[in-house]
Structure formats: structure tokens, C-alpha cells
Amino acid sequence: MSKTIIISNRLPVQLQISNGDITAIPSVGGLATGMKSVHSGGDSLWIGWSGLTDEEIPDVLAPKIDKALAEHGSSKVRLTKEEVNGFYFGFSNRTIWPLFHYFLEYSEFELSYWETYKTVNQKFADAILEKAGEDDTIWVHDYQLMLVPQMVREKRPNISIGFFLHIPFPSYEIFRTLPWRREILQGLLGSDLIGFHTYDYERHFLSSVRRLLGLEVSFNDIYLDDRVIKVDSFPMGIDYKKFHEAAHEHAQRNESQKSELQKRLDTHKKSAPDAKFFLSIDRLDYSKGIANRLKAFEYFLNKYPEYKEKVRLIILAVPSRSNVPQYKLLKKEIDELVGRINGELSTVSWTPIWYFYRSMPFENLIDLYTSCDIAWLTPIRDGMNLVAKEYIATRTDKTGVLILSEMAGSANEMNESLLINPNNFEQIADTLYQAINMPKKEQQERNGILQKRLERYNVEKWANDFMTSLVNQKEKEDVYVSR
Ligand code: ADP
Ligand code: G6P
């Protein structure tokens, strides 16, 4: 029976060694949380990196790795410390991530990173070739593996390959600065179908293909001598039902069933019933605009001082890529900003910012989503931003306000939220004011529309649309080849 092979750098879980044993913790990030829902439902194998380098795994634990991953329908690609440094911390996160998020000044064009990226992409391709039958479908994910489609195609000319990019594809003017721009495009063109979150990213990609490779592009098809490749947008959805039902179940809990976090949130709400909670949840990443958000919060409190002691900002930041210097610097900047703002504004009974720097279990995410009046997400640039969608899905009585950066891919589908430019503090302060004072009826009208849309175009539908499009494209290619 044919199967789908999902391939991405991250697996649904990351392995860690604690107390001399292997433990699996859920991976954070849109790719892992989204694809987990797709993977859990069907007959797929997920290939990726376990999160541990070869050097970190003692011989006695080696057999346990495969077992731990098999429990999650996964299989590993082994990476050495040097490979992780050059491929993951290097080319993926010091070259491509900043470049594709328009942080050109952070991008490092280092030949040794590129060489390791090629070597490691070949390892992933080899892992696919080892596991894949001729009738299987290969679904490659994200910027860490952009050479894999062509590497697989060389060995299996007829196999079905889809590729989905979870981050923005930048405009031609940015992309052309990459020394290995043609190789990246050629790597991607090994696919039959290339998917992006938005039409803009799709357009940018096609423009680069036209201008850098001089290929024939007709609408969203790219013509090679012996193949036709389709490029399309598929905005990724969430597991709407999971979030919505978890929030319903959460609302029915009695006191003894509540988490410590929920009890603390309840206590604060009771002591100041008119107070408003603002929430932001992100990986600690410069693309997420966390520092800007803190400065804008301070700006808001200065512009509207009547809200001092009446609002509180809860920031949940997940540790991410902390070996990369820009992330270390950002952590320091955020620690300092939180310290300074709290130091200057706190009173005996009020701490304006609650800052958590950690990953949280799903249950606590639901505590936060359901307890906070306003979700406030200000990425400078974001491929999609699933947190915005998750917040709306948990608002079972349809109250709550979402303030979202227009630079997030999800803003295209969430027009009923309050959209802001993350660099415009004046606009942000006024939008926070508007959100605090928005009548309940208006909140419910806006969220009602958003919820219907998110429920309809959920992650399952997203994956089905992608797969259906891949099958159709393969048929179209067969006709083209036999013409
Ligand atoms: P990105 O993929 O860039 O990290 P997204 O907003 O698209 O951004 O996805 C983030 C995912 O990670 C969401 O599904 C969210 O629920 C999850 N997540 C974010 N922060 C945490 C946290 N502190 N603990 C657990 N999960 C988190
Ligand atoms: C984004 C990327 C994913 C990545 C995730 C977490 O969502 O698109 O590919 O897995 O961030 O980042 P990490 O570096 O921890 O895998």
C-alpha cells in the first residue's frame, strides 16, 4: 500500500536525555504543531532529525532512540554536531531565515555553511530514498530542506514530490542577494508541486524563477523540457476542533481541576474585574517583533495613563535557536526591556508585564488563550502565525479581540481582526485603546466570522487540498510528457 512520507528537519517530538534516559518532548513551531495533526490521522511516516547530535547519544541509549521515535510514527536522520552547526545553526538559521524574513543585515553568506547544507540535504534525501516505494508520495517541508526535492528526483524521476515552505518567500530584490540563489531554485524545482502560505510569496517565487533561471512560466505552471511544476498558495489552517473543544472542556472545570496558572489568573481577575489582560505568545525570535511590542506597550501607557494598573501584558516566549548570536542578543534585550518597564511602572499592587520564557504544555496554552481579553501579535515578518488562529478558535463565547500585524501571512485571512503595522506605535496605542473599549457585540460579530472561516479551512483541509493538487499535477505532467 502506498504511503505519504513527510520530511522536515523537526519531528513531532524532540528527544532529550534526562536522568540517563531518553525523553520525548513535543516540538514547538507552526510546522510541527500543524503537521502533527495531519500525521496523527493517517498512514504516514515522518522522517527528520531527533534534536540530539550523534555525539550526545551514549551507545547504551542508541537503540532507545529508534523506539522512542517509532512511537510517534517517525524515523531519524542522524546528524553530527558539526553538521548541526553548519546546517541548522548556520545556513538554515544564519543565512536563509534572516534573509527570507527581510533581515538582510543579519544574513551571513558563509561558504562552509552552504557546503554543510548540501551535505545534510543529501542525507535527508538518502533517508527518503531508503524508505520510499515507487508509489509513495513525498512531502518535503520548509527552508532547511530546499535541495531535497531535486536530490530525490535525480534518483526517482517518476515519484510524486510536494514541497511546502512555512516561511515567507522574499521578493526577487532580496532573494537575488543570496550567492546560491540558482541552486536553491533548482533544488525546489525537483518537486511537482510547490506550496506557499500566501499568493504574495508564490508571486515572489515565480518572479525569481523567471528572472534568475529564465524559465517559461504560464500562470502558475513552470515548464521544463520534460516536466511541468505547479506553484500555488495554501494558507495553513489549525486543528480547529482540538482548540475549540479543549476550550469548552476547560470552561467546565471545577476549582480542583484547574491548573496553578489558571488559579493565579482567576485570582487576579477577581481582584480587578475591569482589568484587561493582553496576551502574546511566540518563539523568542527577532521576526516576531517582541521588543517592538514591549516598547509599544510603554508608549501606550504613556499616551493613555488612565490604563495604568488596569491592563497587564502577558508575554510567553519559547526559547529558540539560542546558539545563534542574534537570538542571544534578543533575549538580553527583552530581559532588559521587561526589567526596565516593570521597574519604572510597577506599583505595590500592579506588575504591568508578566514574562514567561519557557515552553508550556497545551493545557496552559488553553488557560492563557481563554483568560486573556486581547491577543496582541506584532511580527515584523511572519510566514503565517498560527497563534492568531489558535486564540480565535478558543473563544467559545466569541468574545475577545485579536490585534494582528499586517506583516503576518495570517492577516490575509483575518481581516475581521484589528490589523496594525508593527512599526507604527501611534497606531498600535490607538488600536489597543480601541480593543479595550470594543463593545462585546462587535467582538462577537468579528470573531463569529473568523471562527467560521477557521473551522472550514482547517489543517486537515489544508493538507487535503495540497495532496489533491499534487495528484492532479502529476496527471497533468504525464499528459505533457506523452504529448
Ligand atoms: P512559528 O512557527 O514561527 O513558531 P506559529 O505562530 O505559526 O509560529 O506557530 C507557533 C506554534 O507553537 C503554535 O502552534 C503554538 O501553539 C506553539 N507554541 C508557541 N509558544 C508555545 C509555548 N510557549 N509552549 C508551547 N507551545 C507553544
Ligand atoms: C518555524 C519554522 C519551522 C521550525 C519552527 C521552530 O515554524 O518554519 O521549520 O521548525 O519555526 O524552529 P526550530 O528551529 O526550533 O525548528
Automatic annotation (TrEMBL):
It comes from the Bacteria. In the C-terminal section; belongs to the trehalose phosphatase family. This is Bifunctional alpha,alpha-trehalose-phosphate synthase (UDP-forming)/trehalose-phosphatase. It comes from Maribacter chungangensis. The chain holds residues 1 to 483 of 737 of the full protein.
